[in-house]
Amino acid sequence: MTPAPGEVVRVVIADDHPMFRYGLSAALDDVERVVIVGEATDGDHLLRLVRAHDPDVVLTDLAMPTLDGVTAVDRLVAAGDRPACIVLTMSEQDDSVLGALRAGARGYLLKGADRDEIVRAIETVAAGGTVFGDRVGRRVTELAARRDQQAPRPFPELTTRETEILGLVATGLDNRSIGESLHLAEKTVRNNVASILTKLHLRDRAAAVATARDHGLGA
Asked: What is the pLDDT of residues 145-194, one digit of tens each?
């Protein structure tokens, strides 16, 4: 249920850089319709704060330890949790934008966005809309125009990160080696593998390897 006109929009921020969280919270502090109800340091922390505070909107970075922003958004959306998710990040790379959209993010802004743009985004997604920063919006348009020319993804239900990890699982790498290859914590890899097994309805890691190789991954 979205906030009614005039109601306060409750927001949780997730970013592993304390000074950025402090600056963003301070910038939004005197916005009458927005209240920060929690500040998370990583994706796992974000999921806990959402359960504890039931916010209307989540503002999350992508690159965070323990659990990245895309995976956190994906889990919130898959679980049917209420908050609309906005990615607020430095990256405008295609994989980052597509990963966020596939996970179910309703907004995508770059960290250079000013306070008014962020507030408008919060209010837009809280009301059920979708919003992108100007540069990101252009990237989305370009990607959509190219979509029909690209080969279909083998596992569209997976995020870009999960597909990447599944490909490495198919090569026989363990979680520690995958983490080292992708500069992720081993726990993050383990969480992603668990999500892959759930989404693809697979019994275990061996079944994941077989399925991935059947679809051309890990060759």
From this structure: 565 555 567 888 898 899 999 999 998 899 999 998 888 899 999 999 99
What pTM, to 2 d.p., does this model score?
Answer: 0.65
The answer to whether 169 and 218 are in contact (CB under 8 A) is yes
Residue 132's φ and ψ, nearest 5 degrees, are -135, 145
CATH of 160-214, one of 3.40.50.300, 1.10.10.10, 3.10.180.10, 3.10.20.310: 1.10.10.10
